[in-house]
Amino acid sequence: MLQELEIKALKGESKISRLKIKPDSKRKPLKKPEWIRIRLTNSSKVNELKKTLRSQDLFTVCEEAQCPNLSECFNHGTATFMIMGQICTRRCPFCDVAHGKPKSLDKNEPSHLADTISKMSLKYVVITSVDRDDLRDGGAGHFKECIDSIRIKTPKVKIEILTPDFRGRVQKALETFNDSPPDVFNHNLETVPSLYPKVRPGSDYKQSLNLLKSFKERHIKVITKSGLMLGVGETKKQVIDVLKDLRSHDVDMLTLGQYLQPSKHHLAVE
């Protein structure tokens, strides 16, 4: 009987070993300013939420990416849910999510997600995912199933999806959302175009812009949104140019966040 080979998920140094442009792990990290330092807590509410997530086989990007704001968000009963597993098909050097061969999709995940959102009494949820270049639709169909399940279980909940770029599958992915669009469609550009080879290898700046614009053309009344990390070597002028590009592609909202280096093997803060 044939057995499926288990491929070990790669993180840290092993994850970025094959990248053409590698982070300098010997570079001394910049000292964090006092205003950005937080005190990690291990409250009962945080532990309770983690227990609820594990019981439903759910994961949050807050945990997988080692977000420093995890305790603050969890203590307020909010989280960004990460669907389609914990293993990504890309090797972005700023991100601490593992790279490797993903497992098959969990068919029960949409219903488990809807049940958890109901138990948490949330009013607004964000659903994101790892990149799934192994799937024919890039995972768009699974996003749709999650949206449908949530609206059946908790119809008043507002849903934001933060999607990958659906590389090579954009039209097929967008068609999937024709009958079940989210309340907010979010796709992060992450950085300025000149830094894509270093920050987002395997992704394309113009393709990401066109994904946002194409969705807006199909769903004029749905809010489109994107995000940028600051602190990976960009200039102020480059950021302003990206803002102009976003506006010319009919993007409604933008988030700007400070990049923090997950480990010495990831991109350094500049």
Automatic annotation (TrEMBL):
Name of the protein described by the UniProt record: lipoyl synthase
Reactions catalysed according to its record: [[Fe-S] cluster scaffold protein carrying a second [4Fe-4S](2+) cluster] + N(6)-octanoyl-L-lysyl-[protein] + 2 oxidized [2Fe-2S]-[ferredoxin] + 2 S-adenosyl-L-methionine + 4 H(+) = [[Fe-S] cluster scaffold protein] + N(6)-[(R)-dihydrolipoyl]-L-lysyl-[protein] + 4 Fe(3+) + 2 hydrogen sulfide + 2 5'-deoxyadenosine + 2 L-methionine + 2 reduced [2Fe-2S]-[ferredoxin]
Pfam (any one): Radical_SAM
Transmembrane regions listed in the UniProt entry: none
GO terms of molecular function: 4 iron, 4 sulfur cluster binding; lipoate synthase activity; metal ion binding
NCBIfam families: lipA, PRK05481.1, PRK12928.1
Entry-linked SMART domains: Elp3
